[in-house]
Amino acid sequence: MIGRIFGAAIFVIAALYLNSALTYEASFGGPLGPKAFPLMLAIPALFGSASLVVFPGTSEVFAERDRRMSQLGAVVCLFAFVFLLERLGFLISTAGMVIALALLMQARPVAACIIGAIASPALWLLFDQLLDLPLPALGEWIG
Predict the structure, then answer these.
(1) Collapsing DSSP states into helix, strand and coil, what is residue 105?
(2) Structural domain tally of the chain?
(3) pTM score
């Protein structure tokens, strides 16, 4: 029953997100436009959550406390990323998010910092330069 409730909740959130993406109008953006990425997230979320409602599975055991805390930490990291993106810029906020998520997945601190230092500029190059989706490298707090 928990799987069906979770699936229904995610389905409603994804449907609202899809509606918001379809009605969003912006005068800026790259060749894909501002609707592309929200649509790429909302449509699979709709199908995935609907499959949870129709085929909930048999395992309905909550994760252990430390797993739940790790999942909560990941959600906090994502909210912090959204909050800090404009203020610190893409490079620093992405590096911090990657490092924090790697540490939550029990990576060694040095490895987490190396991954964050490599992933952040690589993702910025991918989005800003290759896909032509403008992202601020440095935020308003830095320059």
Answers:
(1) coil
(2) 2
(3) 0.62
Handedness of CA 27, 138, 81, 83 (dihedral sign): negative
The answer to whether 40 and 58 have CB atoms below 8 angstroms apart is: no
> Do 71 and 137 fall within a single domain?
yes
Who's near 51: CB < 8 A, 6+ residues apart?
A: 7
84 shares a domain with 99: yes
- Same domain membership, residue 46 and residue 111: no
Q: What is the pLDDT of residues 125-134, one digit of tens each?
A: 888 788 777 7
| Residue 118 to residues 50, 115, 132, 134, 142, Cα–Cα distance (Å) | 36, 5, 20, 20, 20
CB atoms within 10 A of CB 94: 23
Residues 26 and 68 in one domain: no
The answer to whether residues 47 and 76 belong to one domain is no
| CB contact burial 63-84 (16+ within 10 A = b; e otherwise) | eeeeeeebeeeeeebeeebeeb
Q: Which of 124, 143, 141 lies closest to 133 in space, CA to CA?
A: 124
Of 11-15, 51-55, 58-62, 83-87, the least confident: 58-62
Residue range(s) defining the domain that contains residue 129: 64-143
